[in-house]
Amino acid sequence: MGMTIAEKILAKASGQSEVKAGDIVWANVDVAMMHDLLGPRLIDKGFRKLGGKLFDKEKVVVINDHCTPPTTVHQANILKFTRDWAREFNLTHFYENEGPCHQVMVEHGIVRPGRLILGTDSHTCMAGALGAFATGIGSTEMIGVILTGETWLKVPETIKVVWNGTMPEGVYAKDLILKTIKDLGHAGATYQVLEFAGDLIKNMTIEERLVLSNMAVEAGAKTGIIEPDQKTIDFLIQKGVNENEINILKSDKNAKYARVLEYDASDMKPQVACPHEIDNVHPISSVEGTKVDQVYLGSCTNGRLSDLREAAKILKGKKIAKNVRFLVVPASQSAWNQANKEGILDVLSEAGGIINMPSCGACGGFTSGVIGDGEVVMSSSNRNFKGRMGSSLGEVYLGSPATVAATAIEGKIADPRKYIGGEAYELQH
Fold this sequence. Notes:
This protein is of the alpha/beta class. It has helices spanning 5-13, 40-49, 73-88, 101-107, 139-148, 173-184, 199-203, 206-214, 230-238, 299-302, 305-315, 333-341, 344-350, 401-410; strands at 24-28, 31-35, 60-64, 93-96, 116-119, 133-136, 150-154, 157-164, 192-197, 223-226, 259-264, 271-273, 281-283, 294-298, 325-329, 353-355, 376-379, 395-398. α2 (40-49) crosses α5 (139-148) and α6 packs parallel to α8.
């Protein structure tokens, strides 16, 4: 029997010629990532008690992103502890104020096909868009990883999600993953891999693929993974990775899958995840007209340059509705800088947007725009459970950046398709 990409990566990491779903393997870790909130401040005591020596400082990545910029002394102290810890161990890969950890790792070429990547954050799975096996682990487990460079894993089953066809105007990768999660359920892929495939996935940009893998965990998946191809190679070369260091692994044609889901995107409509469950997904027509207090364009899911461009096309020459707050949080400093050069931030600001620094910010309810009791937000982020973006008495709807932009204009959930097309939609850059 052939192997899936995930099985091949875990076989390689454990020094075996082959593994199968259900096997327990001891695997060598290629990247161990921690951020400020679930990193050094939590693991330091146990780490030092057990020896306090990193297995390989080149493979340990620490990123300050959740508490940036700090709004309390407590948050400032978390950042300081993390910063000092990274300096003490002379880490090559320490980043601060550059954006959410998942995007930062991608932009610095740390994520590569075939790597086993573990991080103290559930959305570590985003790295699977580049053909890595990437998953979140607990802080206690991370102590063992950074001491030994190893961990044990049960080889997961894989669900193959095939998307073919062409996305209609106004439909994006975010809509596809919301539809997939609706069908699977928020726990329907627990401890399984989601492998995204099909002609539509092959035709997607890397930034679109990152949206799919980022949200795989919202269906309970261990990781979301996409077969690497020439687009993957070209992307990594642009990030400074030597082509000889890119290890391409692909699923065998006779690989065994737990399930295969097949979709045709041609008839898809914009989708919205409604409070308070990620799988409470409906076509936008079901919730169109719902009043909102805030719209949020950003996050490691949908704050990349292509997302900002799409929103700016819709908002160019327009103003947001009165009594609506429109927060813009680029996914990284790199995306912020490029959007600024292209005039995108000017367009969003002139429409009434507030441009914030790249961080996890209000997405996780930490800083820079959390919502209050009874407030409603339309967000391009990845979670909508009670209290996710602030008050547990608030409500969070999730949609594509285009849906966020259209909603900002009307002050109520709006179908982006009415704003797409024609000269007004074109943005020069």
